Amino acid sequence: MARLKLSKAALQQELTKLKLYEKLLPSLELKRRQLTIELEKARREYAETRADVERLEARVGAELPMLANPEIDLKGLVKMTAFDLGQENVVGVRLPVLKEVECQVAEYSPLAKPAWVDALADRLGDAAEARTRIQVAAQRVRVLARAERRITQRVNLFEKILIPRTRNNIERIQIWLGDMARAAVVQAKLAKSRQAPDPGLEEQKVAAWP
After folding, report:
1. At a CB cut-off of 8 Å and minimum separation 6, what does 39 contact?
2. d(Cα 161, Cα 158) in Å, to the nearest integer?
3. SS3 (DSSP) at 150
4. Among 159, 173, 192, 202, which has the highest number of CB atoms less than 10 A from its own CB?
């Protein structure tokens, strides 16, 4: 850390820095609060998405109890082939947004598969999209949590380090400048007293005058 200069120029620099820090801190704190709100919202959406998947799986199990039969092989029936992932700006943070999911149903002969397989294919497609939404929701939580952590670090830097340190520097410089000013006054008085004529000497000169 550079040594603090004790001068009027340094004092002005510290005052300027303090003014800037105190101006930036409220905006940083506001952004931190906004990110905290968005993070809580993202966590709720993630929990709701997980709950949707669990409800979907429970409904499939209730509507199609025959899936419990191990002799029925439906592996590869539905496969997710693509998804469209966009972005949105939330409080200056870019977050992923799932726009569309594409699934492909494997070709099968209606004679080789029971009629309920069609309904199952639809449900599996819904489940694939729901699981993708869970992943996107989890990523949104991670991104917002990281952004909130960073802005909190900046708020703490300004609030707990930069502003107190700058105020302390200002106080030190002001004290030093005050001491120097008082010392200068004392020195000026001493110098003036040394230049003043000695009254006793003046009386001696008058008495010696013819």
Report:
1. 141, 144, 145, 148
2. 6
3. helix
4. 173
Is residue 97 within 8 A of residue 88, CB to CB? The reply is yes
Q: What is the DSSP-derived secondary structure letter of residue 106?
A: P
Q: Which two structure tokens, joined as six digits, stand for 187? A: 């020195």
Q: What is the reported pLDDT for 34? A: 96
Residue 56 lies in a domain: yes
Print the domain residue range for 115: 27-151
Q: What is the pLDDT of residues 117-165, one digit of tens each?
A: 777 777 777 888 888 889 999 999 999 999 999 999 999 999 999 999 9
Burial status of residue 56 (CB atoms within 10 A of its CB: 0-12, 13-18, 19 or more): middle
pTM above the 0.85 mark? no
List beta partners, residue 93. 90
Cα distance between residue 30 and residue 36, in whole Å: 10
Residue 63 lies in a domain: yes
Please give the Cα distance from 166 to 174 (Å, whole number): 12
pLDDT in tens, 94-111: 999 988 887 777 666 554
Residue type, 138: A
**Residue 115, token pair as written in the block:** 């009629």
